[in-house]
Amino acid sequence: MDVKKYVIKQISVFSENRPGRLAAIAHALGEEKVNILAFSIAEANGFGVVRALVDQPDKAYKKLSSIGFNVAFTDVIAVRMEDRPGGLYEIAKMLGDANINIEYSYAYSGKEGAVLILRVDQVIDAIEKISKSGATLIESSVFH
Amino acid sequence: MFWDKKNETLKGEKLEALQLKRLKQTIRQSQKVEFYKKRLAENNIRPEDIKTLDDIQKIPFTRKQDLRDGYPFGFLAVPLKKVVRIHTTSGTTGKPTVVGYTRKDLDTWADLIARNMTMVGITDDDVFQNMVNYGMFTGGLGFHYGAEKIGMTVIPSATGNTKRQIETMKDFGVTTIHCTPSYAMHLSEVAEEMHVSLDSLKTGIFGAESWSETMRKSLENRLEITAYDSYGLSELFGPGVAFECPERNGLHIWHDVFLVEIINPQTGEQLGDGERGELVVTPLVKEAMPLLRYRIGDITMKIEDDCVCKRGQKIARITGRSDDMLVIRGINVFPSQIEHVLLKIPEVGNQFMVYVDRVNHLDEMTVDVEINRGYFSGELADLTRIQKKVVKELGDALDLRTTVKLVEPGSLPRFEGKAKRVIDQRGDKI
Predict the structure, then answer these.
(1) Which of A24, B29, B32, B85 is packed most tightly, with the most Cβ within 10 A?
(2) Are B407 and A16 in contact (CB < 8 Å)?
């Protein structure tokens, strides 16, 4: 199995916790015609990290860096779940049984159904375990 | 190299005799100022009572507030007709302090600058870019005329347009620059972004702010220069009062021109060599605006008198002016200490802002600092780790708990003139 095709490039943007920062990021990406598929904000002590899955991560990285943002790529994986009551439970249980430690996670429900995005410490190892557990991983080509 | 070898190396009895003669002249000159006439009379001091240098201790101190109260021309000892230039100091509160110069004062001042620059090997072969304010601030015109006196090629580029400054430095083969240390840091950042290397540059003269040895190393590495500390204040002409020689271990203050005392700021008593206290200076040759025992508020000490360059006794580098000294929960904090800590932490930038407030009767200090581009991993946990590291390092250095806010790179203000990094919001809050 080519596990690499399941590794998805998330962009992580350092942002101060003050009004207008998300708007600045979103506006810049809109200008570049970069589509945001999913995002979340994590906050701690006056600053935060905006995490986003976008269709053109390299373009997003370049644009945000050029206007002064501190941007990094982070490897994440995406797991399909059923968009119905109990859907998340089934996946969460599978991940637990497979002994996958999640650093953070966020989800969205889109054209391809419901998707759970996971940041784990051992990406390749997690991909193999999740495949064996019977859950469906989504290839990065679906997003980018 | 010497500009005025005889006066620069004057020591012992010869120096003291000259100082006493000039002190007496200065006291006589001061009696043309209503403030000093009254001041001495109130304290039952006649000018002829000052017979030795030690007798100066009978005279009360002059404070910055006294000068402000004399606004605008209360401290002039000559008619305005004889005053050929006026400068004012950057007044932090209320009215600025006005300083007047006669033609002879300007000449004395230019000579002091020439002494300083010659001391570090600068000659008429050098090309000098003076990147400070040319207006009321004394750093611009002060260095300008001193450098011209030496015969240097002077570029009065003043402040602003950093990219143009860098292009000028490169295109004109500038060898020597003068600016604030924080602006020099900014210059080095911009030069790096522009991919410009400033090969002709040899010497950097930095003043108007106190700066750390770590900052010196950083500037020297980034700009490939030798950096010298320059000290002065408008009330004593401006820059040129004291300056480092190539030893760069303390600053030579010109004893034939300035009578130096170090005092205990609480009791006013004189302190000996090696004892840190407040610098008090009586300028000895000023015509337009003589001052007696002027309390500067800067903290320093006299260093043992044995410099290999043979010039007179040095003072230690200033750890901060008392007016940017903060007292937080009873602890003295100088912004230069914070800078020193931040320079040692690669994950954060060199720019910072300090906010002081009082919350529940307690002083709280918040330091805003930029996260450096290369050190953002994308993980919140790593940012928190950096934040904690800065808190710990500041705590260790200042003996004080601080709040540290990580901000985006490039978001903090860059200062071209005197950096104003401290915002004290305590006011009258209790």
Answers:
(1) B29
(2) yes
Residue of B nearest to A50 (CA): B378
Task: Indicate yes or no: CB of B371 within 8 angstroms of CB of A70.
Answer: yes
Percent of chain B at pLDDT > 90 equals 72
Assigned token pair, A97 = 């049984």
Ramachandran angles phi, psi of B74, nearest 5°: -65, -20
Cβ A69–B411 below 8 Å, yes or no? no
Q: Which of B380, B384, B409 sits opposite A70 (nearest CB)?
A: B409
Segment B357-381, tens digit of pLDDT: 988 777 889 999 999 988 999 999 9
Q: Among A13, A39, A45, A64, which would you mutate to test the B interface (most chain B Cβ atoms within 10 Å of its Cβ)?
A: A45
Chain A CB contacts of B364 below 8 Å? none
pLDDT > 70 in chain B, percent: 96
- Domains of chain A, by residue range, sit at 6-74, 76-142
Domain spanning B326-424, CATH architecture: 2-Layer Sandwich (3.30)
pLDDT in tens, B3-37: 999 999 999 999 999 999 999 999 999 999 999 99
For residue A68, give the nearest of B383, B384, B409 by CB distance: B409
Residues 355 to 374 of B: which have CB under 8 A from any A CB? 371, 373
Residue B70 has pLDDT above 60, yes or no: yes
- C-beta of residue B175 within 8 angstroms of C-beta of residue B127: yes
- With CA atoms as reference, the chain A residue closest to B403 would be A45
CA distance B387 to chain A (A): 9
Confidence of residue B90 (pLDDT cuts 50, 70, 90): low
Look at residue B95 and tell me whether its pLDDT is greater than 70. Answer: no
Closest by CA to B211, choosing from B32, B95, B335, is B335
B379 contacts in A (CB within 8 Å)? 12, 49, 74
Q: What is the pLDDT of residue A41?
A: 93
Top CATH class of B1-321 equals alpha beta
Using a CB–CB cutoff of 8 Å, tell me whether B346 touches chain A.
Answer: no
Which of 49-68 (A) contact B at CB < 8 A? 49, 51, 68
**Which of B405, B396, B420, B417 shows the shortest CA–CA distance to B349?**
B405
CA distance B409 to B336: 21
Q: Which residues of A touch B408 (CB under 8 A)?
A: 14-16, 68-70
Domain A76-142 of CATH type 3.30.70.260: yes
Q: Which residue of A has its CA nearest to B380?
A: A49
Cβ-contact A59, A34 below 8 angstroms: yes
Q: Where are the domains of chain B?
A: 1-321, 326-424
Considering only A24-33, B100-109, B333-342, which range has the smallest mean pLDDT?
B333-342
ipTM of the complex: 0.83
Of B373, B384, B387, the CB nearest to A70: B373
Separation between Cα atoms, residue B22 and residue B33, nearest integer Å: 17
Question: Tens digits of per-residue pLDDT, B174-221?
Answer: 999 999 887 898 899 899 999 999 999 999 999 887 788 888 998 999
Kindly report the number of other CB atoms within 10 A of residue A108's CB atom. 15
Question: What is the rounded CA–CA span in Å between residue B204 and residue B129?
Answer: 10
Q: Report the b/e string of B319-338 with b at 16+ CB within 10 A.
A: bbbbebbbebeeeebbbbbb
Q: Which CATH class is domain A6-74?
A: alpha beta
